[in-house]
Structure formats: structure tokens, C-alpha cells
């Protein structure tokens, strides 16, 4: 059996070579021991970084029975929604580390749904800045607050849309220039900040409108309103004094317009600015099965900016004009494009 014996010897030799390839030789140094993972890493993710950098500036706003919403530190005060505190007899604020504070209401504005509270703010709760411009759609954001009373919560999402104008349930006016996000905004998030990944406030949560759709007060509007509320205790919203509808294809057809854009003045309000120069509708017609007002001015520009929709008009009015101003409006009147001078009034009490 010489052939078999030789094969066994070759197999044994091969096994020895394989063993040397997989094991350290006696003359080699042992590898250093593995470093155990840090059980308390400083950051698990960039979301954690932003959360930890901002959450101590966010507070629960309400009462000890749990009713209320959220707020955050801004310019030495706590900012929240007007509707969060509207039904509270005593306003309390609870910060991240558990401190309860009594709060006084400095000023409120129902139209922008904002309120400014004065309280003893802990040293660790720093003021959060408002962004200078709203970031592009698709920008990642975090919503901070107390959904369903669950304090110091966070949800992640993106800016889903800009220049929205959801209706205010109390005033019958829309809130202009709002920011849309798919970050979770649940009951209790109201008044809390929506922040960028830089930790800057790009919206103040105001309403959830369904799965993955929420709205936040524009930082541009908030800066205008909060500055006046803090300094004077009041803010006067600019007002054209008109009732309007957007120009849809049906409205354009009824009014012999070349394109469906702009807003049609249906009626001028009796509490509008003096010396009103805009004209309301003076007739109506049926298109299909829809009754459509006709003859009113169609506003396609205001203060040098194009107006394609009610949202455009509201944003220009809210961010660029003030009561007492006079500005130019581009209108289509009697089939002709004209530029007229229009006065800006102040909104009446809701």
C-alpha cells in the first residue's frame, strides 16, 4: 500500500501548512486587545446632536393638569401659540430639567397665533435664533415639543412646502407664508419650534392637518410680529379690506381673462382703509353649473411683486407692507391692465 501511505503523508503536510496560515507563529507578537465600545457615546446621530443642542431651550406650556402645548426661549422670553394659552387661567412653564415656573402673558396676537410669556428662565435654556430665510423644500428639520404631553419629544422630517396659507379657525383669515412639514406635529406640539439641522428655528408649530402634513408659522412673519409684541405689546396687521377668490379657469372664463392667475376682488369691506381704490364685482354669470362673480378688479401684482394666488397676496401684504402705507397694485380692470395706487389699512379685531 505505498501509494496510500504517501497520500496520507501529503495530506498531513498540507494540514500543517494550513494551520500555520491561520495561526500566529510562536515568534509573532499577539495583536492588541480590542477596545470596548463606549457605552455612552456623545452622539448617536446628527439628529441627536441637534436635539441635545436645542431641547433645553424648549418647554412645556400649560397647567399642572396637563393641558397646553409647547414653547421655546426667544429673546429672553418664552414664545408659544396664542391658542395654547387662550383657555388657561394660570399659565405654567416646565423646562427640560423639571423646573416649574409661573408665567405672565406679555402679549398675544390671534391673527398670527403667537404669544409672548415672561418667566424665570433657567441659565441653561438659551435663546433659539430664527432663520433669516426659509430653507428650500426638502431641507431636513426636527420638530421639538410635548405631543400628547410627552415632554422633550422630537420628530424628524423635511420642509414639504412653503408659502402655504391655511385658514385660521377663529379669525376667518388665513395665516400667510406658513411652512409645511411632514415632521410629526401632534396635539401638544403647538407653539414648539421646528428647527433646521443647524438648530435655527424655521417655523413655530401651529397645526397638524393629517398624516404627514403639518404647518408652522413662518419665521419671517414671527420675527415681525414678535418684535412688536415684545416692544409694544401689540401688532397691527396690514389689511387691504377686500373679499376675494382666486382666479381659476372657470373664473377666468367668466371674466374674459387670458390666463387663470391672480385674485378677483369680490367685494370691498366697509371697515377697509379709507380712500379705497380697488373695485369689487358688479355682476355674476353661470359657467357650467357654477355661479361666478364678474366685473371686479383682478389683482396680478402688488408692491412690485407678482400675484398668482391668494397665498402670494397674503405673503406680500404680511411681510412687505404695514398699516398706513400706500403702494401700487397691478390690476386687470374692464379688460385692461392698469397700475393703481392702493391704501393699506389695519385689520379689525377678530
What is the rounded distance between the termini? 110 Å
**Which regions have little confidence, pLDDT < 50, spanning 5+ residues?**
1-31
Overall residue-averaged pLDDT value: 88
CATH superfamily of the largest domain: PDZ domain
Pfam families: PDZ_2 (PF13180), Trypsin_2 (PF13365)
GO molecular function: serine-type endopeptidase activity
Domain PDZ: 238-343
EC number: 3.4.21.-
Q: What topology does this entry show?
A:
Elements: H1 2-22, H2 46-54, E1 58-62, E2 68-74, E3 77-80, H3 82-85, E4 91-94, E5 100-109, E6 114-118, E7 140-145, E8 153-164, E9 178-181, E10 193-196, E11 201-210, E12 213-217, H4 219-232, E13 238-239, E14 242-246, H5 249-254, E15 263-268, E16 283-287, E17 290-294, E18 298-302, E19 305-306, H6 310-320, E20 326-333, E21 336-343, E22 345-346
Biased composition (Pro residues): 30-39
Domain PDZ: 238-343
Keywords: Hydrolase, Protease
